[in-house]
Amino acid sequence: MLRYYSYYSVGGYKDLLLGDSASGDESTYFLPMLPVLEERGATDATSQQRAEELRKLPAMRLLTSDDGHGLPSSARYLFSHAGYKLLYRHLEGDKYAIALRDIYPDDKDENGRSIPFLVVIMGDTTADLRTLDTLAAYMASNIVTAERTISSMIGMDYDKNGLRFDLRKFNQWIDTVTKSSKSCTIATINGNITIHASRNQTALLVLPGGIPIKTAIAEQRLNAGTISETVCIDDIVAHDNPGQLVNTVARLATMLKEERSRNKTLKRGLVLAAICGFLIGVMIASCCSH
Amino acid sequence: MSQPLKVLMMGGRRCGKTSALASLFEQAKNGPINNYFTVADRTILETKGIERQESLSNKTLELTNMLETNKDNSNVFLVDQAPTMNSWLYKLHLQIPGKKREMDIEFRDSAGEFFEASGQHARETEEYVRDCDVFVIVIDTPYLMGPYDEATKEICRESIGLGVNRVKDIQDFLTHITDNDGKDAKMVIFVPLKCEKWAKEPGGLNRVTQRVKEVYATHIKNLSAYSKMNITIMPMLTAGNINFVEFHDAYIYHSIEGPKRCCRIDADKIRTEFGEIEPLMPGETVTEDSKAVIAGTSLMRPYCWYQITPGDNSYAPRNCDQLPLHIIRFMLAKLIDAQTNEYKGFFGSILKFLRSVFGTMDIDELRDIIGDMQSKGIIKDKGEGIEIIKRF
């Protein structure tokens, strides 16, 4: 079963269990006002009624130092420390997790600020591994889309006066991604990398731009020898970010020129041609659609 | 003592930890300490993901900009500078001019969430407490005095004041102070901030100090049991002319432009965070601000509304120079204590000689510095609410 966690600011950052893949609930909620209304409800019928309505809603769970709601303590650094954009690693036992951080929500807060959050998707059986491998590869190759999708599914619900997570939509999204994308491969300027998680390993570390690997290792308390694949976000051939794709092509062209001048192999030329072909295909497709 | 002195800023959300630290650095670099040391900010600004550690001078700039922006604003308004979201290290380097005698002081500034005893960061905070030498407990004074003042005790009850300032949680964290069986000296400074209103009242800061002693009585009693413990109360004014005026229940105004914080004037009117009174338009609603719920409780914090001193928007911090002075005096006393214990006997004398040659602080020099600071009254041990409860 997959479980979903987040570090989200609701009047201060909270560590939350958002829901899981086995749940049939449409949405889950974090309702800071519920204890307030319950207390008022002792003497005020309106508050009591409102509290009763809200109590029926499926609830997110707050993680505490004593209760991680299934998340092992080894995952603590995913929340409290940085150094990565996307991290896919073994936690302990049969638990593996994908973490994506620095996602900006669609909504701005009352001060006009967009406060970033993170999401952790954890599988707790080996049966989840195939799903996680595929999901990690997809998210790394489509970070912009993944962020936009996740952002659209979590935010303040002012009617309920709390945080809402669209759990059913999220489960459907994961289902769609893993069914439509059978590949566990990420295309980078240095060639394809295949993602496959295994025990005691970090299957994938995607570094944010400008962050060296040693920062990630220090922040996340990783063992350098156990990281299977590391890639900088700028080196990924992003499927959903034309701007980055163009930059990647330009960098690749520069690198190819330099390699040619040193009489290197044709391998990167093929990759460049493939990317150019992909770009041309996208342009033709977009022209045809108009 | 070759390790840096480690200082932990503690306190609830939005109480002013970073602002206090910014004032401390400002005064350390530009205040009376400069007569004794060359002071340099040796902080290496980190990046954690997208969030970049902010330079403390920017924090001071936020304060001065707020004063300037509200120069002709006679309204009451909400103050909300950017909150800290992570845990950052800042470093101050001190050197005796012309000599190779130097020391570092390292400050840890963490988001208020780190001081929720049942929160995810609790273990991390406990580690920081075990590791540090000085603990600056920043107190949000309006919430400290709210339950005490007749005008505000209805809206800001005792439980709210205790919750906002995380009084019980900080008491729990302080139990993790380790003093190596009485060998290591420690210091705790209670720093009430946002006390401009009380500073302008006769005896106001003394009332604040008295209130600190009441609310934190258990902390003080527990801390006093440590043999080498300094305990000080030190109200500070980081701005000087931004005065707390009143509390109001926390609401969100759902305008067509998006949600905004506000308070209710009546059923049809709200006061925006900038202090403007506006009517509610058709379709616009007002709800209680769920983000004002105090974490882990069923309590809602009322918002504090502030006003610039009429006719005076000058930046006028007060006693901000005392915080670094007291910390440095403690640091020197701690060093003397450590070295006095080390320099016993023949080998102790050799160690002392080697240390004087190779650059760490010398006992006699340190005593001279402390003596000079005290004889010239540069360090305030009383007055304006400052009170030393215990000193080793």
Structure description:
The complex is a heterodimer of chains A (290) and B (392). Chain A has 2 domains: 2-235, no CATH class; 242-289, no CATH class. Helices cover 39% and strands 24% of the residues of chain A. Chain A is built from 9 helices and 13 strands. The radius of gyration of chain A is 22 Å and the shape is elongated. The two termini of chain A are 42 Å apart. With 392 residues, chain B is of the alpha+beta class. The two termini of chain B are 18 Å apart. In chain B, a hairpin with a 2-residue loop joins strand 12 and strand 13. Chain B folds into 2 domains: 5-74 and 82-240 and 316-390, P-loop containing nucleotide triphosphate hydrolases (Rossmann fold), CATH 3.40.50; 244-308, no CATH class. Helices cover 33% and strands 25% of the residues of chain B. The model of chain B has no long low-confidence stretch (mean pLDDT 88).
Record the SSE blueprint:
The complex is a heterodimer of chains A (290) and B (392).
Chain A: E1 2-9, E2 13-20, E3 28-30, H1 33-41, H2 45-55, E4 61-62, H3 76-80, E5 86-92, E6 95-103, E7 117-123, H4 129-141, H5 143-152, E8 154-157, E9 162-165, H6 167-180, E10 185-188, E11 191-194, E12 202-207, H7 213-220, E13 230-232, H8 242-261, H9 267-289
Parallel strand pairs in A: 12-13
Antiparallel strand pairs in A: 1-2, 1-7, 2-4, 3-9, 5-6, 5-12, 6-7, 8-9, 10-11
Chain B: E1 5-10, H1 17-30, E2 38-41, E3 47-48, E4 51-52, H2 56-69, E5 77-78, E6 87-95, E7 102-110, H3 122-131, E8 134-140, H4 141-145, H5 158-164, H6 167-174, E9 186-193, H7 196-199, H8 204-215, H9 217-224, E10 229-233, E11 242-248, E12 251-255, E13 258-266, E14 269-272, E15 277-279, E16 285-288, E17 303-308, H10 322-342, H11 345-358, H12 363-375, E18 382-383, E19 386-390
Parallel strand pairs in B: 1-7, 1-8, 8-9, 9-10
Antiparallel strand pairs in B: 2-6, 3-4, 5-17, 6-7, 10-19, 11-17, 12-13, 12-16, 13-14, 14-15, 18-19
Helix pairs in contact in B: 1-2, 1-10, 10-12
